[in-house]
Amino acid sequence: MKEKLLVGWKETLDLPELGIYGIEAKVDTGAASSVLHCNSYKVVKEDGQDWIICELITNFETKETKTLKLKLYRTKLVKSSFGQEEKRYYIRTTATLYNQVFSIKISFRNRSQMTYPMLLGKNFLYKRFLVDVSKENLSTKPLVK
């Protein structure tokens, strides 16, 4: 059995396939899925394939944005933290923590009113990580053996 990595209540990670580095994410074991801030998005169909075109902030200090066209993995109705149902669009990509690359499914929402531009949900954490809510940014600190 592979040993689980320890993460804190917030972590800094990279989403290299999206060109996003050093993004702060709140670890949320109460949320099923992971969510990334997106200024705007739309779904288009081309040659029978669904794509999501989204405007993502790639540099959170300068607020630099980039428009990406990403292959849509899944569409799902989910209940928000306020109990409202909404349609969410998911992509598959990779996230880097502890200098390791992990697959992740991400949905998009406008999180401009939230403190952190990303949530890491329990579907990503499951069987990979343990959460210590008294710590933060453990994945960017050197591992001590």
Task: Describe the structure using short key phrases.
145 residues, mainly beta, Cathepsin D, subunit A, domain 1, 7-stranded mixed β-sheet, 3-stranded antiparallel β-sheet, 1 helix, 57% strand, globular
Strand order of the largest sheet: 2-3-11-4-10-9-8
With helices defined by DSSP (H or I, 4 residues minimum), what is the helix count? 1
- Record field, number of beta strands: 12
- Examine the secondary-structure arrangement and name the CATH architecture: Beta Barrel
Low-confidence stretches: none
Q: What sequence of helices (H) and strands (E) makes up the elements?
A: EEEEEEEEEEEHE
Taking the sheet with the most strands, its summary is:
7 strands, mixed
Query: From the structure provided, what is the oligomeric state, counting identical versus distinct chains?
Result: single chain
Helix content: under 10%
> CATH first level: which class?
Mainly Beta
Q: From the alpha carbons, calculate the radius of gyration and give it in angstroms.
A: 15 Å
Q: Please, what is the CATH homologous superfamily? A: Acid Proteases
**Estimated structural class:** mainly beta
Tally the structural domains: 1
First-to-last CA distance: 18 Å
Q: Provide the residue-averaged pLDDT.
A: 92
Note the beta-strand portion: over 45%
Shape descriptor:
globular
